Amino acid sequence: MQTQRLRIAIQKKGRLSKECQDLLKRCGVKFNMMGERLVVHSENMPIDLLLVRDDDIPGLIMDGVVDLGVIGENELEEVGLERIARGEPAEYTKLRRLDFGGCRLSIAIDKDAQYNGPQDLQGKRIATTYPQLVKRYMDEQGVEFSTCMLNGSVEVAPRAGLADAICDLVSTGATLEANGLKEAEVILRSKAVLIQRVGEFSADKQALIERLLTRMQGVIQAKE
Ligand code: ATP
Ligand code: ZN
């Protein structure tokens, strides 16, 4: 069901939400984030913001339910691979990479373990929230492994005896250190990106997207 208004999915609460809202505001989109609403209507532009879990954003774009979305590349690529594996549509257009949400997806092991390269991970069990990205990397390296799927507390899995290693998002490395782990391999460098659904857009929506992109370019350049 397509609407006249441009629908943009953004993370409701989390590491991307504040910067994402700030970016839209600097682009001149006025809105008032009050309460626990799912949809927030812009007061000055034909734009509706959809406030959701970040995990839902790639699917909303790939199913064509919303027009634009802001999402971390890690989540976007993981969901894309998962949907391809299930035979579901996984197409989208990347409009631009943004200047926030930077992190890396890394494999980490016991800080005292020897590490000379991916072959040292042969036969290991890796705890992760990103099984598809881990599989893609390990297949590329020709290294066999098994997974332990966890949606939280990934970094405690080795100490808890659930896994030999982990693959998780890292920004400073402090969480790894606190859990007696060290970074062994970076498998993805991620940032937040603005994505668009595939398919037709009305002339009005198309013009609005272009205006937003031009403003975004200005806003991001001004910060550099
Ligand atoms: P939600 O409740 O929306 O599912 P979440 O807990 O999955 O939230 P957040 O922790 O808010 O997600 O992270 C959202 C995104 O922020 C990550 O997917 C990643 O792209 C980015 N990010 C940037 N730095 C980090 C970091 N140090 N750790 C985790 N994510 C980070
Ligand atoms: Zn999430």
TrEMBL record:
<keyword id="KW-0368">Histidine biosynthesis</keyword>
<comment type="similarity">
    <text>Belongs to the ATP phosphoribosyltransferase family. Long subfamily.</text>
</comment>
<dbReference type="GO" id="GO:0005737">
    <property type="term" value="C:cytoplasm"/>
</dbReference>
<keyword id="KW-0547">Nucleotide-binding</keyword>
<comment type="pathway">
    <text>Amino-acid biosynthesis; L-histidine biosynthesis; L-histidine from 5-phospho-alpha-D-ribose 1-diphosphate: step 1/9.</text>
</comment>
<keyword id="KW-0963">Cytoplasm</keyword>
<keyword id="KW-0460">Magnesium</keyword>
<dbReference type="GO" id="GO:0003879">
    <property type="term" value="F:ATP phosphoribosyltransferase activity"/>
</dbReference>
<keyword id="KW-0808">Transferase</keyword>
<keyword id="KW-0028">Amino-acid biosynthesis</keyword>
<dbReference type="GO" id="GO:0005524">
    <property type="term" value="F:ATP binding"/>
</dbReference>
<comment type="function">
    <text>Catalyzes the condensation of ATP and 5-phosphoribose 1-diphosphate to form N'-(5'-phosphoribosyl)-ATP (PR-ATP). Has a crucial role in the pathway because the rate of histidine biosynthesis seems to be controlled primarily by regulation of HisG enzymatic activity.</text>
</comment>
<feature type="domain" description="ATP phosphoribosyltransferase catalytic">
    <location>
        <begin position="53"/>
        <end position="218"/>
    </location>
</feature>
<keyword id="KW-0479">Metal-binding</keyword>
<dbReference type="GO" id="GO:0000287">
    <property type="term" value="F:magnesium ion binding"/>
</dbReference>
<protein>
    <recommendedName>
        <fullName>ATP phosphoribosyltransferase</fullName>
        <ecNumber>2.4.2.17</ecNumber>
    </recommendedName>
</protein>
<dbReference type="GO" id="GO:0000105">
    <property type="term" value="P:L-histidine biosynthetic process"/>
</dbReference>
<keyword id="KW-0067">ATP-binding</keyword>
<keyword id="KW-0328">Glycosyltransferase</keyword>
